[in-house]
Structures are given as structure tokens and as C-alpha cells.
Amino acid sequence: MTAHTMLHPSAARSADPLLKKSPPSSDHDADDNDDRGRRSYRSSSRQPSPLPSTSSSSLHARIPSPFSADGSLDPERPMAPRRTRTTTSGSSGLRNRSPTQSAAAARAEARRKYTYAAFFLVVSLVSFTVQTELASYIQHDLGWDKAYCMLYLTHGSWIFLWPLQLAVLRLRRRDQPWPRFWQSHMRTIRGLALVVETRDTRAASAGHGLLEYGHSPWPYMAKTTVFVTTSLTVAGLSWYLAVSMTTPSDLTAIYNCSAFFAYAFSVPLLKERLRADKMLAVAVAIVGVLVVAYGDGGDSSSSSSSSSNPADGDLPNPATRLAGNLIIGAGSILYGLYEVLYKRFACPPDGTDATKGVIFANTFGSLIGAFTLFVLWIPLPILHMLGWETFVVPTGETAWLLALSVLMNMMFSGSFLVLISLTSPVLSSVAALLTIFIVAIVDWFLTGTPLGAAAVVGGMLIIGAFGMLSWSTWREMNEEERRKQVDLSADEDEDD
């Protein structure tokens, strides 16, 4: 189209210009235009545009026809590219694939997701076991029994998750200039935060609007960090409050019922369907915990219990025990709620790339650590002045073992956040119950005390429940893949 030729949409085929040069109706009209110092479209003195003229015939001439002279399709002639509808979803380009290719890509992504989940599950189990043994030794044998201070240090250590992750990512992209690497990483984090806020994988896509026009997700992330961290901290404190008020068996059994509450909260908050196999798996896991806690007559103790636990034969009175059970019950509910709140408000939705899910999980873990360090230090001087927990700086063996325990907790917590993000709060909760059996086995090797029948039976029940829940989750994932395959096929039919 030339600079002075404007086509009306309805006249696109004929290429008739809306404004076309025509000879002046009279010499008077031409003189009048010249006197006013303007050039009329009717004036023949207007210079032609230096751009080449473009008409519908020339456009068609540039695109070779795939048909021969007799009207049949000639395979030797190239076909003009077909106009396809693009998509801005997180699965870029899926609509340009066949249903078979789309299903294969979805299965590959699912395998990658669950490979990551399996790796972080192993890391979380090992790190939690080491952290539990270290915390027990620090509290019982070294006498540094500072419940809130240990909670503050362990949760505050999460602030290092993002810097460590950044260092790993930088090592993988050493050849990239730092300014470009930093800009790309921050754009990824900001885009994922927008996806989390909107629950729409298209929010960070190019041209969608939110990322391009400067919408900030950080006020939302700040509010989410506050209420998720508060739920986590109160749940953790309930353990330390109840540990001297009730028995170790009650403490273990009630607190680990958080798996049930995680499933209960998942139904209204995550819109998770009630499935008989999942409910059965959660029930079997809780039965396994009860068998471990009470199977040997209720005198078993967890190695992670505090030194202030009542000794055998010195049980608390019924009123105190009831109060302790109510406190730890509230903590169990809050811990299940924390897991679901984190999944609902701080994790990217389904369909997000697994690697990006890992990146954002560690980033949000750092936000929890930052809030803990900069806000939750306030109770420390209050507890010290009231004499409820006198602050003492750890030294010597206590100091370096405490540092190692804090490091193990950071590894466990980061892995656990990733596990929830990639799978579900219910599966992650039941997976965490495996540590009960693993800690018992480690105690057997360290102390020489053999496992009781209740520990073995309860451990087998927990392992079986985890296997059932994993199978149920895998079936649910396959059903979701089939639904996506149908949706993609429908989209491609629409494009055709």
C-alpha cells in the first residue's frame, strides 16, 4: 500500500482507494487550493510515493499457488503458510502439536515433575532424620533447651534458600553475562509471582498484559508470607508448649494427624475431590501412627521430644494432660492448614513447568525466613525478661552442632516446600510420617535398642499408606492428562 492509498476493509479485494487522485473539477478549485498553501488530493502536482505500489494482484503474485493449471494440487509447489491461532498459555505451542505429541509431552513433564519430587522426598527424609537426632542430642545431652530460640533459628535459616538456589543457577549459566542473567532470573521470579497471584499460567506470557504493563505482585506475596508464616510458627510453637504437659505418645499421635487435616482443608480450599482410595490411605497412615505411639503400652517416646517430657511413672495429672492434648491438637490442625494455605496461595498452579515450581518454592521459603528473622525476633527479649526462656548464647560443641541442625532443617524445609508444590499437601504429609519409622531405625543403630513390634507394624502401615497415596496421585495425574488431551484435540479441531 502506498503512502497515499488507503483501502477500505470491505474493498480489500478490489483495492479501490478511499482517497484517489482525480483531476480538479475546475481551474478555480485548483487555484483556490494553491492560494491556501495546501496540496489537494485532487491536485495532479502531487508527487508519487517512492514506495512500490502494492495491490491485491501483486500480493497474490508473491505467494506461489500450490495448484497446477488444471486445478489439481501440485506436490512440487510450496503451499502458503496456514494462519494458525497462537496461544499464550504456559504450555507454549501445544495447540500446534498433534494430540499424540501433546499427550507425550504432558507425560514427559509429569515424569520430570515426579522425578524431582522423588529426589526432594529423599533429601527431606534424610535431612529431617539428621536434624531430629541433632536436636535431641542438643536438648537432652548438652542441656541447651531453648525451644523458641531454636524455632527462630531454624525457620530463620530459610532465608538462605534463595541465595543458594541463585548460586546453583549461576553455576549452570556461567557463560551468560551477569546483568543479563540477573535480569532474566528476576523476570522469571516476577512472572511466577504473577502466575501465583492470578492462578493463571498466561499471566506471565509475552503480550498478556500483567507482566508487560508493570503490575506488581509483591503486595500480594507480602500478605501471603505473613499469614502462611504465622500459621507455621503457631503450629510449631504448639509442640513446644504441649511437650511438658502431655505424654510423648499423645504428642506423637495427635500432632501427626495433620495429614488428615491437610486432606480435610484440601477439599474446600484446593477443590480436591473426595476419593475413597485417598481417604483410606490417610486413615491407614493415622492408624500406623497410633500403633507406633500406643502399641507398646503408651510408654514409647520420640527421640525428638524435649527433655521436659514427663518420665515414666511421673505422668501429668488429667487436667494438664487434657490441656496439652488440646494445644497439640490445635497445632496439628494449624500445620495441616499451613500446608494447604501454602499450596493454594503460594504455589504456581498445575501446568507450570516443574523447574520453575522448584525455583519459586525456594524463593517463597526465603520470604518465610526473612519474615521470621526480621519480625519474629520480638518475642525473644520478652521471654527472656519474663524468665520463661532465658537466652543463652550457645558455645563450643553446642554451637557447631546447633549450626549443623539448623542447616539440616533448612534442607528439610526447602525440600518439603518443593514436594508440596510439585505434588499435594496430603501426599507430602503422609510422606513426612515416614520419618517416624526412619528415626526409630536410626535410634536402633545408635543406641542398640531393638525395634518393638508396634514400631515395626506401625511403620509398615505408614509405608503402605504412602504407597497407596502415591498410586492414587499417579492415577489422578493420568486422568488429568487424558482430559488435557481431549481439550487439546478440541482446540485443534476449532483451529481447522
How would you summarize the topology of this molecule?
Elements (H helix, E strand, L loop, with lengths): L26 H9 L20 H7 L36 H43 L5 H10 L4 H12 L5 H21 L19 H25 L5 H8 L2 H12 L6 H19 L23 H29 L7 H22 L3 H8 L9 H27 L2 H23 L5 H43 L1
Helix pairs in contact: 3-14, 3-15, 3-16, 4-7, 4-12, 4-14, 5-12, 6-12, 7-11, 7-12, 8-10, 8-11, 9-11, 9-15, 10-15, 10-16, 12-14, 14-15, 15-16
Explain this structure to me?
The chain is mainly alpha-helical and 496 residues long. The protein has helices at 27-35, 56-62, 99-141, 147-156, 161-172, 178-198, 218-242, 248-255, 258-269, 276-294, 318-346, 354-375, 379-386, 396-422, 425-447, 453-495. The protein has one domain (121-477). The chain is globular, with a radius of gyration of 33 Å. The two termini are 30 Å apart. Mean pLDDT is 76; it is low at 1-95, 299-313 and 488-496.
State the domain count. Answer: 1
Indicate the percent of residues in helices.
55-70%
Query: Taking Cα atoms only, what radius of gyration do you get, to the nearest Å?
Result: 33 Å
Total of helices: 16
Distance between the termini: 30 Å
Strand content: under 5%
CA-based shape: globular
Q: Main β-sheet: number of strands, strand sense, barrel status?
A: none
